[in-house]
Amino acid sequence: MRWSRQILFGDIDAMFASAAVLADPSLAGKPVAVGGSSPRGIIAAASYEARAFGVRSAMPTGEATRLCPQLMLVPPDRLLYQRLHEQMQAVISRLLPVTEWTSIDEFYAETTDMQSLYPDPSRLGRCVKEAIFEATGLRCTVALASGKTVAKVAADAHKPDGLAVIEPGTEASFLAPRPVRDLPGIGPKSAALLHALSIHYVSDLLDPRHEPFLRQRWGHRLLAWQEVARGVDHDPVVADRESKSLGHETTFEHDTSDLAVLEETIRSFLGTLAHDLRLQGLAAGSFTVKLKDNTFQITTRQQQFRQALNYDPAMWPAIRSALHSLALPRTAYRLVGLSFSGLLPATESLFTRRQDQAIAALDGLIERYGSRMIRLGGIPEE
Ligand SMILES: [Mg+2]
Fold this sequence. Notes:
Layout: E1 7-12, H1 15-23, E2 32-35, E3 43-46, H2 48-51, H3 61-67, E4 72-74, H4 78-95, E5 98-103, E6 106-110, H5 121-136, E7 140-145, H6 148-157, E8 163-165, H7 171-175, H8 188-196, H9 211-218, H10 220-229, H11 241-244, E9 247-256, H12 259-279, E10 282-293, E11 298-309, H13 312-326, E12 333-345, H14 353-369
Parallel strand pairs: 2-4, 7-8
Antiparallel strand pairs: 1-6, 1-7, 2-3, 5-6, 9-12, 10-11, 10-12
Helix pairs in contact: 4-5, 12-13
């Protein structure tokens, strides 16, 4: 059966820890963690062997070595990650024509038109996994679905080295038994509130008994969650997002005048973009916030940071206040965007040692949880 729309999502398994094994093959099969070696350092990423001991991203190194005394600690190697990323991009762009990289180790591809070549989606998935492994030595989990969200959730559920195919028409039944937290857009705060209301699974979001209260509390966000829960997801794959400029923008399914929604969206862009800056060894001198209202009127605000930055908690206050001064009351917006300009090579002196550890932990969390994690709002500045 030909799918009317097909999206492939790929996510490298434990990328930083796997990269460490590539750089030093004697680490293969051992519990490996990337992070600072001082007892007060923080673990940025852990191999699956280390995770079996309970070692997790953002855990203090001291605790990790207590849990796993034989833990092999490796310092982060951003140049290596960037080189692997470029190798993966090259091989994937040869194989799949329309790809969108959402982080150093995650990408979406629009594969609808490839079905004549690959009538069996799992064959295409295996090809992608093998191509990445041959080019880099990294293992990748791949999922195919009719939309981005289901593909991402399916990949998360099949890690490591997994391959998932969610057939069209089965999206809602696939999502139904999953925890609400698995849906992008439901962060730990919303999840905690939902749990307190005995709403634990995606299916609960569609339960008419919960509807009145959920609608009152979450308004149009509930509608967006319900659409995803039903398997409705038209979010397109945006090709070459990276090469255009360092910026993200999105059109909402439903126009919104809710400042909290605008804020949350921009904050999630900031997390991804700052992560990209850090990986490229860059810092941004200025930023632009962009809004498009429901009459298609575009307004922007460009502003300079006091100094070039690439650490999102430090960047957020200026961006947030620019958004607040730009957004008009009682105006419905259909699109928000954030971009950076004035990009400079980052110097070590940009950060305190403490921030460096926090940044390593943040990048580790992004590596572990993907961009969904960014909805946590990053980590506090202090
Ligand atoms: Mg990954």
